[in-house]
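User: Teach me something about this protein's shape.
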Amino acid sequence: MLCISNPTHVDQKKEAADSAEQTETGKADTEPAKTTGKADTDDTSGIISVYTGEGEFTNDKLETFGGYGVMKITNLQELMQYICCNGFEHHVAANLCQKADAIAEALGTYMGWEVYRHV
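Assistant: First, the predicted structure itself:
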């Protein structure tokens, strides 16, 4: 399981208010297929890299401030190995919809970024 901080939210007042409450309490929406990912730059070589994947927020209670929730990710060990071996920081973004395929296609195909699509 992965602890998610600093989520990305749709710009709507109700969702923003709900999200602020969820951040304080560590409770996240538990519907399946939420998107997560991270982008990074290698400034010396001019390369932009990104990983993206999907998971489900759980009902696990967080005992920390600022965490959004805990996400269950399939093949988490494989993702963690990729993150560590490629020097990604531990903070990630999370979106409350299923968009990992679209993100991977757009950033890899049209932007030319190095993309790892975790499944």
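Now, about its shape. Residues 2-117 form one domain. The two ends are 15 Å apart (CA to CA). If you'd like, I can walk through any region in more detail.
User: That's plenty for now, thanks!
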